[in-house]
Design a protein that fits this description.
β4 and β5 form a beta hairpin. The protein is built from one helix and five strands; from the N terminus they run βαββββ. The relative contact order is 0.26. Strands 1-3-4-5-2 form a five-stranded antiparallel beta sheet, covered by helices on one side. The protein has a single domain, classed as Thiol Ester Dehydrase, Chain A, CATH 3.10.129.10.
Length: 122
């Protein structure tokens, strides 16, 4: 899939805090990056507040690592909704090295919809 097929794309440079002892991006950082772009998707595409009464619970996370990324590399993370069900929906993600013009990772997340009940004062 081409990065242009994604409704929301976030661009940034790999920060030093995401580098591990092997001198490339730690796999856990990819999870943080796709969560960040999902939040951007809610704000920019859906115009939906993350603090509203419509919430989601993560049910499944899959990431396939294809290429390592290095410190200060230019990265783009794309996000789109790939499936909508009755009680859940899926986001698809791709992480690209803009420096080397290769896909570094791809994945998906399944979210369960829920209604958040406001807390009553005690």
């Amino acid at each position: 899939m081409a990065l242009t097929d994604f409704r929301c794309i976030t661009h940034f440079q790999v920060p030093f805090c995401d580098i591990d002892m092997l001198q490339h991006v730690n796999n856990a950082s990819y999870v943080v990056w796709v969560e960040t772009v999902r939040c951007n998707y809610f704000a920019e595409v859906l115009k939906e507040s993350l603090a509203g009464t419509n919430g989601v619970i993560l049910a499944r996370l899959e990431l396939n690592y294809e290429q390592p990324l290095d410190y200060r590399e230019q990265v783009a993370v794309g996000c789109r909704i790939s499936r909508i069900g009755r009680k859940s929906f899926d986001f698809a993600y791709e992480i690209w090295s803009e420096t080397h013009r290769v896909r570094a990772a791809r994945g998906s997340r399944r979210w369960l919809r829920m209604t958040i009940q406001p807390r009553r004062p005690s």
